[in-house]
Design a protein that fits this description.
By secondary structure, the protein is of the alpha+beta class. It is 47% helix and 18% strand.
């Protein structure tokens, strides 16, 4: 679309997946609107809009007519992470509700706006947060409709059943009027099959057949259900709000030795902040001065504080526990770890699980089918057998109330949102429902070695200069070639050179040769740091040193050859120890019937030494294209997960059914991967799989619960065993039950391997 731009709004009051369908269908009918996406748990409406064809205020008007609150979030390019005050509100089941609407600029609507000041379903105001249910607008609505019902019963007792009928009828009409208004608006927008429509038809129909008392009771139970659903849905969103509130609002910016308090979201890269003991760190950064224990549990879930010192990275939201630190800001507020986690969780709803897509397709014909079935139940027995019309109209109306698919369609997103929030608190990030479902089906896992199974911080163990070359010269050339590289082996060589007090030679035109090594111009001539195999082909290993390299590799060391064109300079050996929890992680994976394997570009002898200690299979000397090919082969026989942390791993991470990046990895790996492990603990890999399997089990329970209850009450309603109030209670109860079941995932501990 020419001139289209991506726009976003926060839509409050959506506590049922059917609500997202209503908003989507209403908005996508407008000219110049494309690619409409409505996320239930993050309460976000996003779309491509041609302002020349449809004004943004038209979209807001449509959404308000459906009864939801709406506030503009701005263009996606300018979007910032929402703080606690800006997060979407916790609202009621506004498949069925009415809104205390607010314009996008925050001003209240006109006093004459329908729904204001009148009894009906209203969404929570921001001021309602933290209040008891009876202090909220929805709670007051329940109290009001309940009072009407009690008054009607009292009036009937004091007068007669005839007068009582009119009292109940009045209570029903007052309570259902806002719902009818919503139903009418939905019908005008081309959506006749909504819960509002079914509720209105059922209530009015019950009045016509003389069931005024039940009609009033149904309206009251409807309002009660909305309160319960609103509370449950709000809790499902609390995880994201809790993440957003981790970052402090202010920071102590240090300039010329003086500090002043500034908003944390205005910090710029390179600025320095003072973090006092007990303070939360205001931004991702690197410690410039000071050593202290850092409690990273708010971000990674790691319960034991870790000691960090100069040069080490810290996360925004972590807590400084011991001594004052001066931290250099390395990421802006919009790009820090917390913001990225929130963004991952918010965007996760776009990556819908296959199960969720199936449920959506199923629900599209489910409600029309229920309406058709209700019509048949009303018409066929009286017409064919002469049965009583009142009896079968009553049963058909009960079917209509059972027909709302809210419990079914919310069963999947509620479980996924809870799993994502639970994982985020423990440093386990997954980019959506599709990733959760794929992770649950994984049968094989491929691990990169360096930085994944090992610490990624190798140390130089041996320096073997060639004949006629000094150790200082060897390291000076090696450091020159590796200067500027972030690879763990390069960093180890640079550290050893610095510790030895050797100055790296000047170098230019440095570039990585993927899978082979690095080259640069050093002193005007080319120099290389490469694997012995590639160095030998290029004449870069001196006579007799190939045997030394082989011996060092059998000891589990990684060996690189340093050489100039036609002039071998020597060998450097490094060793990177396996992570302490790697062996335990492999044991857990095998107990889960998952086969782990190492894919590494390192030499076979080093790979064998590591794999032998961990009890794994391995494939060594692999180029990136070799990893890609092997991942394809493994994927042909079942779900495969790839774990990596480097640029070389990005293609394999993308090819795997699930690509997982270690938190210490490169941004390329993190962006390419489907999931991420923030704590750099290998045992978090089986924990991630356990969380995904628990989420899928929860989804299956929810679907079975929703469909099972519907099936039971459809049958009992047709047989006349259950009436209208039981029908609405079953519908509302099913929605509440599946939501509460999904919330159990918030307490799930994926690290427990029992």
């Amino acid at each position: 679309m020419s001139g289209a731009e991506r726009r976003e709004w926060t839509v409050s009051g959506m506590d049922c997946a059917a609500c997202t369908v209503k908003v989507t269908k209403a908005v996508e009918r407008l000219p110049g609107v494309r690619d409409v996406k409505v996320a239930l748990m993050s309460e976000r409406l996003s779309l491509d809009l041609e302002p020349a064809r449809t004004d943004p205020t038209e979209i807001e008007t449509i959404v308000k007519r459906l009864g939801y609150g709406i506030a503009q979030r701005g263009a996606t390019s300018e979007r910032k992470p929402l703080d606690a005050a800006d997060k979407p509100l916790s609202h009621g089941h506004d498949c069925d509700g009415h809104d205390r609407e607010h314009d996008h600029d925050g001003t209240p609507p006109d006093e004459g706006d329908a729904g204001h000041g009148s009894p009906g379903h209203v969404h929570d105001d921001p001021a309602d947060r933290g209040k008891n249910w009876y202090q909220t607008d929805k709670g007051r609505l329940v109290i009001f409709t309940g009072a009407l019902l009690v008054l009607a019963w009292g009036f009937e007792l004091l007068t007669s059943a005839d007068y009582g009928y009119w009292a109940f009828a009045l209570a029903c009409v007052i309570g259902v009027a806002p719902v009818a208004r919503r139903a009418f608006e939905a019908v005008r927008l081309g959506q006749p099959f909504t819960i509002e429509s079914l509720m209105t038809i059922a209530a009015v129909g019950a009045l016509f057949i003389g069931a005024a008392e039940e009609a009033a009771l149904v309206v009251f139970l409807f309002a009660v259900g909305e309160v319960l659903e609103g509370v449950a849905a709000g809790k499902a969103r609390d995880g994201i709000r809790a993440l957003a509130s981790l970052v402090p609002k202010t920071a102590l910016l240090e300039i010329d030795g003086k500090t002043r308090e500034v908003p944390a979201d205005q910090l710029q890269i390179g600025q320095r902040v003072l973090v006092r003991p007990g303070d939360r760190i205001p931004s991702d950064g690197e410690i410039f001065e000071g050593t202290s224990g850092i409690d990273e549990s708010p971000v990674t879930g790691e319960s034991v504080p870790v000691t960090r010192g100069p040069g080490e990275k810290v996360f925004a939201g972590s807590i400084n526990t011991e001594a004052a630190l001066r931290v250099t800001v390395t990421k802006t507020a919009a790009d820090n770890t917390i913001a990225r986690i929130i963004q991952l969780v918010e965007d996760a709803e776009d990556a819908r699980a296959p199960t969720e897509r199936f449920i959506d397709r199923f629900s599209r014909w489910y409600m029309p089918a229920i309406v058709a079935l209700a019509a048949l139940v009303i018409l066929i027995p009286p017409l064919l057998t002469g049965a009583d019309w009142g009896t079968w109209i009553y049963r058909g109306l009960a079917l209509l109330l059972i027909g709302c698919p809210c419990a079914l369609v919310i069963s999947v997103p509620a479980s996924i949102a809870s799993a994502l929030s639970s994982g985020a608190k423990k440093g386990l990030l997954m980019k959506g429902g599709a990733v959760i479902e794929s992770t649950a089906k994984v049968s094989a896992i491929a691990f990169d070695k360096t930085g994944t199974l090992t610490h990624g911080k190798p140390k130089v163990t041996d320096v073997l200069p060639a004949l006629g070359v000094t150790e200082d010269n060897l390291l000076a050339v090696a450091a020159a070639v590796e200067t500027g590289s972030s690879h763990p082996l390069a960093q180890a060589i640079l550290r050893r050179t610095e510790e030895a007090g050797i100055e790296a030679l000047p170098a230019t035109e440095a570039r990585a040769i993927v899978g082979k090594g690095v080259e640069a111009l050093v002193g005007g001539t080319k120099a290389w740091v490469a694997s012995p195999r590639h160095a030998e082909v290029a004449g870069g290993i001196a006579a007799g040193q190939a045997e030394f390299a082989a011996q060092l590799e059998t000891e589990g060391k990684t060996v690189v050859a340093v050489f100039r064109s036609g002039q071998p300079l020597g060998l450097v050996a490094l060793r990177d120890e396996p992570r302490g929890d790697a062996a335990e992680a492999m044991a857990q994976l095998r107990a889960m019937d998952i086969a782990p394997v190492i894919l590494t570009g390192d030499n076979p002898r080093t790979a064998e030494a590591i794999a032998g200690r961990l009890g794994m299979e391995f494939h060594a000397s692999m180029m990136p294209e070799d990893k890609l090919r092997l991942i394809r082969e493994m994927g042909a026989s079942g779900g495969v997960m790839m774990i990596g942390d480097g640029i070389n791993d990005a293609p394999a991470l993308k090819q795997a059914n699930v690509g997982v990046a270690m938190g210490s990895g490169t941004d390329v790996a993190l962006e390419t991967a489907d999931a991420a492990i923030l704590r750099d603990r290998v045992v978090d890999i089986p924990a991630l799989i356990r969380l995904a399997r628990a989420a899928m089990a929860n989804i299956h329970q929810n679907v079975a619960l929703a469909l099972g209850l519907k099936a039971v009450f459809l049958v009992t309603s047709v047989l006349g065993l259950t009436g209208l109030w039981i029908a609405i209670l079953a519908d509302t109860g099913a929605t509440v039950l599946v939501t509460l079941n999904a919330l159990r995932l918030l307490r799930f501990n994926p690290s427990d391997n029992r």
